[in-house]
Write a structure and sequence with these properties.
Elements: H1 2-9, H2 15-20, E1 37-38, H3 43-52, E2 54-60, H4 72-83, E3 88-94, H5 101-115, E4 119-123, H6 126-130, H7 135-151, E5 155-159, H8 171-187, E6 191-192, H9 194-202, H10 221-240
Parallel strand pairs: 2-3, 2-4, 4-5, 5-6
Antiparallel strand pairs: 1-6
Helix pairs in contact: 1-10, 4-10, 5-7, 7-8
Length: 262
């Protein structure tokens, strides 16, 4: 399974994948796996799928503003249900325009209590980088929030900042991108390398980033579809490498001679 998903990310669809009915990513969204994601275990999500075939996802970060961005939860749900056709995916999207990581951290407790997710997909870092948040303070706030979610049995997938040519060599912006990567590595959670994926897609066409980015530093409809596919593939690949939960062993009842006196 893992090999098939990685091959799909590379734009290669082997016969075995076709026979299994696994979807290939859109031609416009194909990115080499090394530039697309870092996988890690998703124990809570795996347990939810084993127990009830339902995956509850809380999507935070990004924007819930009207327009193309409002279609992201629908695109993500469709991409996940295509990648995992026997799973019922329920997505609760709680994005706020311009929100930075420390602000989202303050909302997490109430969001988690309300949504009761198995998995949090967090688009993070773009607004922090634009607002020139100190990269060390940003990483500390993100690290603390991810650790808190994990301590409550909730999986996390991080999605790093947007890419445009205007920020490609911006030192402070890149430090935020690096900070997301470092937190994902330190906390052992999957990472969607959106910055590198969008850089790759922008360099693949004469239109540059214009075919995936709209106005006001936001993804357009195609960009959102690609991101949804990339998140879905990251989740699928991570689930494929996560061992199934081991059921607890039943303790046999003691026979009469084995019972302790008294």
């Amino acid at each position: 399974m893992r090999g098939i998903v990685v091959a799909l990310c590379l734009g290669i669809v082997p016969a075995a994948a076709q026979e299994a009915g696994m979807p290939a990513p859109s031609l416009e969204c194909r990115v080499p796996g090394s530039q697309l994601y870092s996988v890690a275990g998703l124990a809570a999500a795996k347990a939810a799928l084993e127990e009830r075939h339902v995956l509850r996802i809380l999507a935070i970060g990004g924007s819930s503003a009207p327009g193309a961005s409002a279609s992201y939860p629908v695109k993500l749900e469709a991409a996940l249900e295509q990648a995992m056709p026997h799973v019922d995916v329920v997505i609760d999207h709680r994005g706020l325009p311009g929100e930075i990581a420390s602000g989202a951290a303050e909302r997490l407790r109430s969001l988690v209590a309300d949504a009761e997710p198995d998995l949090v997909v967090w688009q993070v870092g773009t607004h922090d980088a634009i607002a020139r948040v100190d990269p060390t303070a940003f990483a500390e706030a993100l690290d603390e929030s991810v650790a808190w979610l994990k301590s409550h049995g909730i999986d996390v997938v991080l999605v790093d900042p947007l890419y445009t040519a205007s920020v490609a060599t911006d030192t402070d912006y890149n430090r935020i991108v690096d900070g997301v990567r470092d937190v994902a590595t330190r906390e052992g959670v999957p990472l969607v390398r959106r910055f590198e994926a969008l850089r790759y897609l922008a360099g693949r066409t004469e239109k540059g980033e214009g075919h995936i980015l709209g106005r006001q530093f936001r993804l357009n409809d195609l960009g959102l579809r690609c991101m949804a596919e990339h998140v879905a593939l990251t989740i699928s690949a991570s689930l494929a490498r996560t061992p199934a939960p081991v059921p607890p062993k039943e303790t046999p009842a003691l026979t009469e001679p084995q019972r302790a006196p008294g």
